[in-house]
Design brief:
The protein has helices at about 5-10, 25-30, 55-65. By secondary structure, it is mostly helical. The protein has two domains: about 1-35, no CATH class; about 40-68, no CATH class. The chain is elongated and about 45 Å long.
């Protein structure tokens, strides 16, 4: 299994499987309509906020609507 981002970037070489008549898309993954989609959770330790520049940037990108 791979993440949807990798699939989306490599559609010329990789195909997703339709499951129960549902195709993969940002919409079907976001609304859990695609049967094997799942939520991702991550944890940032309060003591580390501000202590690690790269981790701060990554965490801010992860929670932003646009990923930047």
């Amino acid at each position: 299994m791979i993440g949807f981002g990798i699939l989306d970037q490599n559609r010329d070489n990789i195909r997703a499987s339709m499951i129960n008549g549902v195709e993969t898309s940002f919409e079907t993954i976001s609304d859990a309509g695609y049967p094997v989609s799942r939520s991702t959770y991550f944890y940032v330790k309060n003591a580390h906020i501000g202590a690690f520049t790269h981790e701060d940037a990554w965490a801010r990108a992860a929670i932003s609507p646009t990923g930047d």
